[in-house]
Every structure is written in structure tokens, then in C-alpha cells.
Amino acid sequence: MPSTINIQWLQQWLQTDWFLVTAGIGTIVLGLLLVSRSRRQTQALTAKLQRLERELRAANSSAVGMGRQLIKMEKMLKHNVQPELTANHPTVNNTIDAPAVQPKPIKLETTLAHSPTSQDSSYNQARHYLSQGKSVEETVKACGLSYAEVSLLQALSKQSASIS
User: Fold this and answer.
1) Choice between 10 and 50, residue whose per-residue pLDDT is larger
2) What number of other Cβ atoms are within 10 A of residue 70's Cβ?
3) Distance between CA atoms of 90 and 140, rounded to whole angstroms?
4) pLDDT of 117-150, one tens digit each?
């Protein structure tokens, strides 16, 4: 009789183990499927992130380029306003009593410092960081402005320093 009990116990043990083995294999397969799916999603998100980063760099680059163009146009305007005004308005040339039209120089620092926005302190802080020689990246992190804004402020500061 002891051998029959051992056989029944062995059969139950084998049936239980097969169930556990099957459950374990199923869990492993499910885990592998989830890991595979997760990797595909990660790759897709990485590709989207890279695309958005490229688009953001392009937008920032164009904003900085536009800022530089504005500075160039302002320089051209400052140099060309007086001859253009006198050439296009003969009454200014021919009238002795009329005062000469002089364009007022634009002070960029004053314009930026007095702009009526809620970001005045951010712009002032950014100008302060830039005047201390901090990089654009450091200034962006410290002030919460965009890369394009800080780059434009840097360009305007350099331009304003060269005019003074």
C-alpha cells in the first residue's frame, strides 16, 4: 500500500508541476510580448521626439535669423533715413526756415526695458545674464525664455553695444 500512496502523490505532484510550468511559460511569453510592444512604442516616441526637436531647432533658427534681419534693417534705416527724407521731400530741401528732419535714434535697451508685457522681469534678467557673459543655454534655463528670444536679446545687445 505504501507504493500506491507514493504513486498517487507523484501523479498529483506532476500534474501540479505541469500546471505551474505551463503558467510560468505563459507568463514569460506574455512578458516578452509586452517588452516587444514597449520597445516599438519607445522607438516610435523617440522618432517623434527627434522630429519635434528638428522642427523646434528650425523654428528657433528662423526666429534668430529674423532678429538678425531686423537688426540689419535697422542699421540700414539709421544710415539711410536722412538722405531719403530730404530726397523724397523737396520742401525740406528748399525751405530755409524748416528744421531738418532728424530721426531719433532708437535705444533698444530702453525699448526692451519698457515693453508692457508680463515678462519684463524675465527679459531684464536675461539681459543681465547675457551682460555677465552667460551662454544662451544658461540664460534660457535661468529665465524661462525660449532659445530664440534669448538669442535675439543677445544679438540686440551686441548690436546696441556696437552703436554706442
Assistant:
1) 50
2) 14
3) 50
4) 445 688 888 888 998 999 988 998 998 888 888 8
pLDDT at 33: 96
pTM over 0.85: no
In the block, which residue shows the cell 510580448? 33
C-beta separation of 143 from 129 below 8 A: yes
CA 97 vs CA 87, 92, 110, 120, 159: distances in Å: 18, 9, 33, 43, 36
Q: Which grid coordinates are listed for 61? A: 533658427
Cell of 36: 516587444
Sequence-ordered list of residues with C-beta below 8 angstroms from that of 91, at least 6 positions apart, any chain: 98
